[in-house]
Amino acid sequence: MALIVQKYGGTSVANPERIRNVANRVARYKALGHQVVVVVSAMSGETNRLIGLAKEIMPDPDPRELDVMVSTGEQVTIGMTALALLELGIKAKSYTGSQVKILTDDAFTKARILDIDQHNLKKDLDAGYVCVVAGFQGVDANGNITTLGRGGSDTTGVALAAALGADECQIYTDVDGVYTTDPRVVPEARRLDKITFEEMLELASQGSKVLQIRSVEFAGKYKVKLRVLSSFEEEGDGTLITFEENEGSMENPIISGIAFNRDEAKITVAGVPDKPGIAYQILGPVADANIDVDMIIQNVGADGTTDFTFTVHKNEMNKALSILREKVQGHIQAREIHGDDKIAKVSVVGVGMRSHVGIASQMFRTLAEEGINIQMISTSEIKIAVVIEEKYMELAVRVLHKAFDLENA
Ligand code: ASP
Ligand code: MG
């Protein structure tokens, strides 16, 4: 007997028929003698619909009230899923985040989980119930409803698995696993049987949308065994996210996947004095405004000045530009400040990079052969990311997928 947490995404609970399918799968696991906790998202499209409604009333909605509204999507699907299980004659009980007591901080719309009370769930599981828990939501110390950020049900699933000491956390979605890249861009993309946790973390942070990045961080911290599977197929083992690397690196593919992301914009502060403290004077006010910065480049100085370039989320480019123009430009005597949101970031990821040289040059040659200009580069031990013009993004992903032979195992 094992304890399994199964998380179902929005497309897997999009209508009563699909919710019945979920119940049938849960029933099969119960029949094998397992204990099952089910975490569900809202029906697909529902969270967007609720956010839209809020914005019709207040264009930039108050975050506390927004969370009160958007958390209702998951409250509907836990009830429906519990009903579907009851219809099959299976003991089931639904739980909102606050009924479990998924305690979070009070950062509405992007709250972090602080603690999970496993007492009620454990008692029900031992009494033979399937516990159906609302994803994406929690409660703060003052009893306010909070949500965990878009895609947050993944994090609920992994956090519950960690808190309950589950044997496996299964993430059911509309794809049958983690692919070498998005099959909509590269039809030859291949499903990976397994991928290391570190690679998954890089892919998620570089733009792969399969798992919310926080859920991967959580899985890493608590060593939760995670598996991504399709809810539309009965068979198949999906992709296992492992903590083991095969030491004999022959077995490791050098590159496991290619991620891409159109969500960033580039800001250049040109002609700044090349002297100590400049990076801090530029990025300090940006950080104070709670704007996340991703890649950063500072050129070597020529004739006493230099250019400083960094990327932020597209939605925050204008805010960052006005902060820089109002608070920083005059102060540091920068010649010019400009933004560019027609960029994309493409990243190749693989633990095999550690033991192979020449991956970066192969990547750059491949892009050069297509005439694609590289604007920024950043690397980690297992990742090389480049910023290029947005219109070349799909081409870049396709040629890199081929150059690294990702279509063949
Ligand atoms: N329903 C929420 C969203 O759409 C959470 C989730 O699906 O994971 O972002
Ligand atoms: Mg999701």
Automatic annotation (TrEMBL):
**What EC numbers are recorded for this enzyme?**
2.7.2.4
Family to which the UniProt record says this protein belongs: Belongs to the aspartokinase family.
Q: What is this protein called?
A: Aspartokinase
User: What CDD domains does the annotation carry?
Assistant: AAK_AKii-LysC-BS (cd04261), ACT_AK-LysC-DapG-like_2 (cd04923), ACT_AKii-LysC-BS-like_1 (cd04913)
PROSITE patterns per record: ACT, ASPARTOKINASE
- Keywords linked to the UniProt accession: Amino-acid biosynthesis, ATP-binding, Kinase, Lysine biosynthesis, Nucleotide-binding, Transferase
Q: What EC class is this? A: transferase
Q: Which reaction does it catalyse?
A: L-aspartate + ATP = 4-phospho-L-aspartate + ADP
Among SUPFAM superfamilies, the record links this protein to:
ACT-like, Carbamate kinase-like
What PANTHER family has UniProt attached to this entry? ASPARTATE KINASE, ASPARTOKINASE
**KW GTP-binding (keyword) present:** no
Q: Domain of life of the organism in this record? A: Bacteria
Specify the pathway. Amino-acid biosynthesis; L-threonine biosynthesis; L-threonine from L-aspartate: step 1/5; Amino-acid biosynthesis; L-methionine biosynthesis via de novo pathway; L-homoserine from L-aspartate: step 1/3; Amino-acid biosynthesis; L-lysine biosynthesis via DAP pathway; (S)-tetrahydrodipicolinate from L-aspartate: step 1/4
- Which molecular-function annotation in GO is an example for this chain? aspartate kinase activity
InterPro entries named in the record: AceGlu_kinase-like_sf, ACT-like_dom_sf, ACT_Aspartokinase, ACT_dom, AKii-LysC-BS, Asp/Glu/Uridylate_kinase, Asp_kin_monofn, Asp_kinase
Q: Which residues form the ACT domain?
A: 267-342, 348-409
